[in-house]
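Standup notes, protein team

Yesterday: finished cleaning the Sinomonas terricola set.
Today: Peptidoglycan-binding protein structure.
Blockers: none.

Input for Peptidoglycan-binding protein:
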Amino acid sequence: MATVSAFIRPLVATAAVVGAFVIVGGSSAAVPPPPPAAPAASASAASAPDPLGEQRAVVLAAREATQARLVQEAAEAEQKAEAAAQAAAAEAAAQAAAAQAAQAAAAQAAQAAAAQAAQDAAAQAARQAPAPAPAPKPAAPPSAFIPVVGAGGQAAVNACQGPVHFTPVTVSVSIAEHDYCGGWNRMSWIQPGTIVTVQGYGTFTAFQRMVVSQGASEYVVGNFAGGYPPIFLQTCIPGTDQMLLIGLH
């Protein structure tokens, strides 16, 4: 048996060396080469699919896409919110301006209405008010009448017949009467501004009163304002040694 094994091994080797030729029916035919050997185990392992890796890649890609979408949506939402806020602010400003304009118009209308009401009230009051009373006429100044009974000196005055033209006074016309003969009551009340009618001499206006001593010189009459008057009244002051002089012009 051992001899056979040793014989066969060379024969097989010889056949391998012959290669692609086999004798069939006295002729030779080409024999195809053997199929290539299978790749090594390491190459098969490198090209084999990895389901877990692919799943991780898909999950990561989905996560990134979701995050990108969320960022985009947040940006879009922020833009929309900002635009809405701007629109709301513009609307609020417009409403405030409209309210202010309406308030100003209302105030102006109220002022116009108040002014019109005041004018109407004034017109109504003017229509209803009675006509103003005429201005009172100025009161006529007081007046006095001095009768002149004659002319003469001290004897004529002492006769107590009434006022006389006292002729010893030559610087002016003196109308004299004793106080106890009625001269005080007739002349003492006459004040500046009184209209005095002197019988036989005309109408004058009293302008000044002056007190002098009895027996004074006639020239004291020149102390009246403006100098010697054209005419004056004189009478004694009861119970004294003085005389009252009243200048007329």
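Follow-up from PR in the comments: Residues 55-121 form one domain.
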